[in-house]
Amino acid sequence: MDRCSALRLAAALVLVALAMIAPSSAAAGNPLLAPWTGPYGGVPPFDRIQVDQFKPALEASMAENLKEIDAIAANPATPDFNNTVAAFERAGRTFGRVNTLFNIYSSTMSTDAFQAVEREMSPKLAAFGDLITQNAKLFSRMKAVYDARETSGLTPEQKRLAWLDYTNFVRAGANLAPPAKERLSAINQRLATLSTGFSQNLLADEESYVLFLDKEADLTGLKEPLRAAAAAAAESKGKKGQWAITNTRSSMEPFLTYSARRDLREKVWRTYYSRCDHGDATDNNKIIPEILKLRAERSQLLGYASYASWRLESTMAKTPERAMELMEAVWKPAVARVREEVADMQAIADREGAKITIEPWDYRYYAEKVRKAKYDLDQNELTPYLQLEKLREAVFWEAGRLYGLKFTPASKVPTLPDVRVWEVLRADGTHLGLWYFDPYARAGKNSGAWMNAYRNQERFDSDIKTIVSNNTNFVKGKPGEPILVSWEDASALFHEFGHALHGLLSSVNYPSLSGTSVPSDYGEVPSELNENWLPTPEILDRFALHYRTGQPIPKALVDKVKNASKFNQGFATVEYLASALVDMKLHLAATPDGDIDPDAFERETLAALGMPKEIVMRHRTPQFSHAFSSEEYAAGYYSYIWSDTLSADAFEAFLEKGGPWDPAVARSLVEHVLSVGNTVDPAEGYRAFRGKDAGIDALMRLRGFPVPAKSSPGS
Ligand SMILES: [Zn+2]
Questions:
Q1: How many angstroms is it from 640 CA to the middle of ligand 1?
Q2: Per-residue pLDDT tens for 93-125?
Q3: What is the rounded distance in angstroms from the CA atom of residue 578 to the CA atom of residue 570?
Q4: Distance 492 CA to ligand 1 centre (A)
């Protein structure tokens, strides 16, 4: 067991190193350590952050937190909720602030200098987390409070918190014998390093491969505003007068949709879907097998058959089998729909005399032609009506009408470049929180779109308001010119704003239970649900205004969008489900000692599933940051469809009453879902809102798939 003891030694050394950390002179005057000051109960000090402050701030705040933990653990008084669970909730405030800013930099300001700090600190952060969950004295006090929860006069929320803390400690190994704890901590540190490497490789491949086009002929099929965006991207990379297709989804997707140049489509497709799969320094296939092995080993140490079983235990699905059951129920009808979609596309290609067989780089392009032929809808017709700033106003208006919220620009709040801030007010004018909007792509920022909570709502010691952010990757246009986006991007804005509402409308006592701190397969319900308000006439008539004429989008065009709403759902569902299934199967198959070859596993799994050859996984394994950049969505990519069964069903609750704007249903949604965070079991919260469990029917209707003959509620 040489390898094992070597790792144990390494773990022990980190523990010693951490124990010796004390706030040093380097920490003095470090703005990251200070409580947030300024308006709105304090705001993050984005105007004073230097990358070299992160390491001393993390070290000092970890040391402070460990002292706080020691004090709770050493308390001679009999353990009770207040001196143990509440005290634990109160501890680590400084670390929480520093770590929040560290994570913001990791996802949006990841320069080479920052990445070096991140590589050094990520295993130390993992070791620090284990020092807390492996503190035997603290755990025995937590257990005492948990064991007495039914008889000690706790409120339901306090009981839930005692349960959650106890469960989290057990799931992190608090019950293990000391040698197993050491091994577990060594595993966690190694996993942190591997995940950081995975993310940094992905960012490197997205930033280092760019297709520059220098001839008008290379742009055939592309219209404005795509051309302008590509020109701006080239200019920002020092190639004024050319056009750049960058290696990100927001650049790849529109190019594959509209470019009439099949050779260039294939090139862009191959570049995008081979990120981190080149056998070079940034190849993630070298990292994935070790991540899978270590996750499997840790799960076995903790007494679980697989990583997937460990991971899903704390979700709404509870077991991999239930998640697989849902995915398999949707997979077959989705594949059947793909066959129809491909036949439609092939027919058009044949009619045009293209002499091709539909390949993956043709799918989006010919799907557009089918959309035009079947529904007379050209997505390009929509874009002039979809202005980024108008869509931002649209979500504000929606939140006003549904939930009584008001948004006003917040002044004197320091921000990162191009970020703007709004104060969020309740109908009665009282302060509810802040919403930061970081819309544009920049070097060092992750691709995609996401929400982040900078500060959770709570009112346990004092009434603390939340700070949330929405982050997207639009190409910044010329000053004063509107940024025009696709329908899909508009939908993504509503999605992320739904997460923001989940944070903003939170009304709980304890920050660990606040806002979006719910299992991942429930966390997508508010966001997916919120996408449903974009296509309402109330939103489109007011905010889908032509960027030149100011005229609202014509009703005939809206009708076409509605008619085409189930179009291409075969593609969307299959590219997503293929990723979700491979993610789950990888985490079911992995063992502590067998190496999984990611490329071969992906190939064989997809073949066994009957993956249509015209589609590729939305996230191929070497690029699958949901699964490998962190553990938040590992064996958890199924969360999106799990949540979607609920969000589709939840929207039907509105339709069954007065429609999308029904105030009573909106109130009930806030009361039972949006405000409760993790203070109640998600299944119970949902049932309280809906009066029943969500079955699969609403989801199948929404996607235009056949509804199974006997589907029972609660499935
Ligand atoms: Zn989401």
A1: 8
A2: 999 999 999 999 999 999 999 999 999 999 999
A3: 12
A4: 9
